[in-house]
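Example 3.2
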Amino acid sequence: MRQKTFTVGAITTVAATAVLLWSTASFAAPPTRSRDCGTGASIVGSDSAGAVQRGTDASNRSTCTLAFALPRLNATACMTVNETNGGGYSTPVGTITTTTTVVIGGALPWVAGDVISYICVSY
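Structure, written as tokens:
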């Protein structure tokens, strides 16, 4: 009786497909930011990881909302850190997530120009 075996071509195809799917999710367009991030706020990165620099009027706003470029199957698990913290040590920041957004907040006072980094993973 003949045994069934995988061929190198099949394994290569599976590995290449996995890399393509991972790279598509990781290098997608960055999420968009809402007005609550402050005037002139900027964002770099992707839906999976990046950083938001708070705008000039950030000190009177308690949240910063990011809308993902691609909706997720489930609400994401996100971790955020205020890297600059107005010149102090970095500090964790709270989040509320849905399948389409992450609301960053809970660490006040914000300082204009603070850089908030984020990592979001969907499952």
